Amino acid sequence: MSLSGIISVSGLPGLHKILSHTKNGLIVESLEDEKRRPIYASQKVSALEDISIYTTKDDVPLIDVFKLMLDKEKGKATLDHKKPADELRSYLSDILKDIDHDKVYNSDIAKVFQWYNILIDKDLLKEDEKEKEVDTKAAADTKKKTAKKTAQASKADVKKAVPKRAPAKNQAGARKASGRKS
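The structure corresponding to this sequence follows.
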């Protein structure tokens, strides 16, 4: 599950996927109606992977909130974002026990529910088999790198134990220099 390349643009409803970069901004595609449009550098853009929810302890990344919602709903859509604010807030409080109610506004909570439902509708929150394979490959690569570093450390210890030889003199260069006539 990855939210990279998914953004929210101030002044535009819903979520957008980044297609390409231009010298003045971005080209994005709406996840809802699949219309493409330019986004200029003067517009406010927020990447979903950078957004977090305030709690009384530490901030919780939005992807973690989505994972909790996904587990609770078993991969289905959740409450509509147009439900009463109290209902949305109590649902989110059930998921995040230590949410900071003073800092998290009702409009923010409504966006979380709207974005979650959009991502579920487009199957962007489900963990693919490819991602699971990548995770297992990454774990295997980490094990290999750790083993390789351990082996290199052992070789370095052996090299420290063996004294270095003095570099050989370049005798061919010495012959050429003596054979010259001035």
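The radius of gyration is 29 Å.
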